[in-house]
Amino acid sequence: MSGGSAELVAIGSELLGPGRTDTNGSFLTRRLGEAGIAVRFRTIVGDTPADLEDVLRNALRRSQVVIATGGLGPTIDDLTREAAAAVLDLPLDEDPSILRDLEDRYRRRGLVMPPQNRRQAQVPRGAEVIPNPHGSAPGLALRHDGRLLVLLPGVPLEMRTMFDASVGPMLPASGVRFATRILKIASLTESEVDHRLDPVARSAAPVEWTILAAPGQVEIHLRERVPDGGGNPGIDRIDRECAAMLGDHLFGRDEETLEEIVGGRLLARKESVATAESLTGGLIAARLSSVAGASGWLAGGMVCYGEAAKTGLGGVAANLIAAHGAVSAPVAEALAAGARATLRATWGVSATGYAGPDSGPEGPPGTVFVAIAGTSVRRHAALRLPGDRAAIRKRAAQSALDLLRRAVLGGDPA
Amino acid sequence: MSGGSAELVAIGSELLGPGRTDTNGSFLTRRLGEAGIAVRFRTIVGDTPADLEDVLRNALRRSQVVIATGGLGPTIDDLTREAAAAVLDLPLDEDPSILRDLEDRYRRRGLVMPPQNRRQAQVPRGAEVIPNPHGSAPGLALRHDGRLLVLLPGVPLEMRTMFDASVGPMLPASGVRFATRILKIASLTESEVDHRLDPVARSAAPVEWTILAAPGQVEIHLRERVPDGGGNPGIDRIDRECAAMLGDHLFGRDEETLEEIVGGRLLARKESVATAESLTGGLIAARLSSVAGASGWLAGGMVCYGEAAKTGLGGVAANLIAAHGAVSAPVAEALAAGARATLRATWGVSATGYAGPDSGPEGPPGTVFVAIAGTSVRRHAALRLPGDRAAIRKRAAQSALDLLRRAVLGGDPA
How far is the C-alpha of A134 from the C-alpha of A216, rounded, in Å? Predict the structure, then answer.
């Protein structure tokens, strides 16, 4: 019933540099999960023989399936074959059929194979050769002490094709898969969510429970090992319990975004929205317009960054700003009302505040008012948002969208 | 002469799921490199105590400096403190000053600390506490057998601030450092850059050379090992050679962004800009307003998503749209001119086009016109952008900003 656990090893000194990411890991994690195999470790290591051997030895000690990507090319830094042979104490033999294929590849392009490429025909004794339809480096599979070690090239297209054609069928049969779900929560902090959901989290097992915070959003990641072909009763139970505890704070699941949900509700209600943004400077409109088909319900928007833009473009009365300040609830509501009037939309949504680093006359960075306006509804939220300039702007946009989401959620009129 | 080697450990089961990346590794690799410490291993592990201990034990065996991020929060899956204490065989004590700080944080927000947060005050005996100015979880530094183990929160802002303030000074002195530079290039594809810079790349050694592409931007990452306190002559030489080959396509270095460079030029010229966006829907304004101090040169903006918004808010003549279509060079230029007139700015910048997934009457997704308008200058670019909806929008915003950058780069009048 168990497919065991896996470790992914990404090999290549370039992957240890700043600004590089291992893009193969996501693909392999997803495919292994579909086969009921959990990835418990991921390691990145350079092309140093001793480091590479250390990592492979550790991986084979603690994981049933080890998939290593990279280091199979023809250059002198490509040392994965040698390291695997050393760790498993196997000699390297030259495989004549690989050599023939390599030479053929060059011959077809009218070239002679450079002598160093002969290294790619070296195979640890007993290894199964995995064909590579898109490149010169074949893969290798080695079985040892009930463990499976698979070596694949690091080029994503080659790796994916080889995994799907040849590696999938080698994996231990499990009869199980990992079902996953993400629950998305707005307008509560991570510790508020943690506190409210504490009893659900404590009784989550055997479902794995992880809580994650992004600016303005908290997510619960659930994972359950279930028999192939069946449902995921544990996840469904926890979903119901969380929904009951969180009410409309739980806004979506999996890939759903706040902007998609708002757009979907507006479309269903045959309504539209316009934006008026000060500190968010276009972030709210950019998120709404990221939804395919947004032209059906997004009338347009205004970025009223300075005071002149607020009174001119935004239609806010100058005496309102004089009386309350540009960062205030009345100005936020006036901006929302101005956006809907100017752009002839059902709803207006707005944000005004200080993103920092400087404070303003009405408070420190993070002092933010978001508002919505409909035909008869006006509503605002006064916020004290933590974080740096980017985080404050992101949280403000999220809060404004969430205020709008709550308003359009039910059947109430604008 | 050697600062030794480092291992980065990213902790959190969510980091093992598909689609998640460890964003802290790049920052830490860069900073450690600046201190002459090479990262030789990076490991990702979940919140399972035995796995976490196995990874920390291995890391301390093979690396002089181990930096672990994540798993320091208040929830029951935050187990890094416990794992470090177990691996180093140290008892956990409650630190009264951490506890006081935690309680104060809640009190200032008018809240009572939930009891489970008390866990964050647990400290392995002898650990040095690293203050966290942006969050509740303090970091911890442990010295053992000539090794340094540092535990930091996984939240990037918190981690970075704490590293720079407290961890940097703890690192072993090395006498060398890795100098790095990123060259940023706009309006050329990766293969165009690769082709133009081929001779420079071939003679780059001993400087390491990596080329990377993001939507609308190509980057050259350079790295050179140099003695402490000296310059980086290799990087400087390559920088000069690239600048000569690329001309004004090379727009910035390291952390510089296109929007910062545009803002800096506008400020120096005492000019301002206003945006009018169709398919980018606020992305251009959001990028410009992300720059601290943008209120000095960003007048505001308009999102003219539908045709009504283009003729109404955007001030585009209806017969211009009828004659050329909403996605056309004349409409892009009229939008840019409308933005500068309505918002009384020196410059207007605009984008109109099809982001997809649907095609429009004037072409397939990726058909985009960007434009700028000044007092006497009007300029546009007709583009065929590749990628999905998100990539097309991002590339369009980048192209519009780059058109503006070239216009404000020199001393020419608007």
Answer: 43
Same-domain check for residues A10 and A109: yes
A307-316 pLDDT, tens per residue?
A: 889 998 989 9
pLDDT at B2 over 50: no
User: Is A27 in contact with A156 (CB distance < 8 Å)?
Assistant: yes
Residues B277 and B341 in one domain: yes
**SS3 (DSSP) at B257:** coil
Torsion of CA B90, B93, B99, B101, to 10 degrees: -40
- B322 in the same domain as B281: yes
Q: How many A/B residue pairs have CB atoms within 8 Å?
A: 244
3-class SS at B383?
A: strand
Other CB atoms within a 10 A radius of the CB of residue B188 amount to: 17
Print the domain residue range for B292.
258-409
Task: Give the separation between CA B69 and CA B162, rounded to whole angstroms.
Answer: 11
**A161 & A34 share domain:** yes
Cα separation of B252 and B244, whole Å?
14
Q: Which of A303, A335, A350 to mutate to test the interface with B (most CBs of B within 10 A)?
A: A303
Cα B214 to the chain's mean position, in Å? 12
Beta bridge partners of A125: none
The ranges of chain A with pLDDT < 70 are 1-3, 18-21
Q: Which residues of B touch A60 (CB under 8 A)?
A: none
ipTM: 0.79
CB-CB neighbours of B187 under 10 Å: 19
Question: What token pair was written down for B32?
Answer: 């450690």
Q: Which of A199, A231, A253 is the last residue of a domain?
A: A253
What pTM did the predictor assign?
A: 0.79
Residues B303 and B189 in one domain: no
Are residues B249 and B263 located together in one domain of the fold? Answer: no
Q: Is residue A414 part of a domain?
A: no
Interval B5-61: pLDDT, tens: 999 999 998 888 765 667 799 899 989 988 889 899 999 999 899 999 999 999 999
What's the CA gap between A147 and A185, in Å, rounded? 41
How many CB atoms within 10 Å of residue A323?
A: 11
Reference A71, options A89, A51, A95, A91; nearest CA is A51
In angstroms, the Cα distances linking B314 to A387, B149, B331, B399 are 34, 58, 10, 20
- How far is the alpha carbon of B123 from chain A, nearest alpha carbon, in Å? 21
Average pLDDT over residues B272-288: 97
Same domain, B346 and B371: yes
How many domains does one find in chain B? 3
Nearest CA in chain A to B273: A305
